[in-house]
Design goal:
The chain has eight helices and nine strands.
């Protein structure tokens, strides 16, 4: 049986993040990847030069085309840059009853360039979090969603508990940016128990696309039938290896190595 995953996100012309990263990750997991593009970015390792939101009609029609013919086993959402796009995507996921939704509340690129308008941030919280199986905010995104600073591991746990109230099934607060920690520690929470998911911390600038890659790896695991915690832990192992073998290409932050562990046949 061929497992399928759909990414609903923006396009990164540099290939390190967005739908390009998602589909590479799906492929690395042996999952057939499909996409509904929400925006086109002119982007490279240095930054984001231009963002063009696609018309709502084509965003909706892409999701419909997949839903009625190539029904996905899991869905990942990434860059949803305007309130109208957020609402259209949430409505489509609900209308077609798409399963196992991983929401990565993308707000800024690694370069610091904004990818989500301020007006869309509250819409993501109101519309996307309640329909999610797993949400994967980093520390900055968690602070924005909750309007509070996150400085310690206990803060991360409290934030995960607060975000769980939105209605999602699992919260993963990513701690990769936490200062003073010798490990990259994520807090996963299902409403009953906190799970600390750890990996080594690597001193490398080549981390472009880590958020996209991690969330799409979770979606790939869910598509393969993994339980949420298993999918989260497997994704953590994968992104850790991808960062460790990151690609030193371009003039800025290189991407993670999405094909880590995949053997070439050529």
């Amino acid at each position: 049986m061929i497992r399928k995953a759909l990414t609903i996100a923006g396009s990164d012309s540099g290939g390190g993040a967005g739908i390009q990263a998602d589909i590479k990750t799906f492929t690395a997991f042996g999952v057939y990847g499909m996409s509904a593009i929400t925006a086109i970015t002119a982007q490279n390792t240095v930054g984001v030069q231009l963002v063009y939101d696609l018309p709502i009609e084509i965003v909706v029609e892409q999701i419909k085309s997949i839903a009625v013919d190539l029904r996905p086993d899991a869905v990942k959402t990434g860059m949803l840059s305007s309130p109208a796009i957020v609402n259209a995507v949430a409505d489509s996921i609900t209308r077609y009853n798409l399963p196992k939704v991983v929401v990565d509340p993308v707000m800024v690129a690694k370069s610091g360039d904004p990818l989500l308008s301020e007006s869309a941030r509250s819409t993501v919280k109101e519309r996307m979090l309640p329909i999610a199986t797993v949400i994967t905010p980093n520390l900055f995104e968690t602070e924005v969603l909750l309007g509070q600073k996150i400085k310690t591991l206990e803060d991360m746990k409290a934030a995960a508990a607060e975000l769980k109230k939105s209605g999602c099934k699992w919260v993963v607060v990513k701690g990769g940016h936490m200062e003073g920690e010798t490990e990259a520690i994520d807090v996963a929470y299902d409403g009953n128990e906190f799970h600390l998911v750890k990996s080594p911390r690597f001193d490398t600038p080549h981390t472009h696309g880590t958020g996209c890659t991690f969330s799409s790896a979770i979606a790939a695991g869910l598509a393969k039938g993994y339980a949420p915690l298993q999918a989260i832990k497997t994704a953590k192992e994968y992104i850790s290896a991808a960062i460790h073998s990151g690609l030193n290409i371009g003039k800025g932050r290189g991407p993670t190595n999405h094909l880590v562990g995949v053997k070439s046949r050529w």
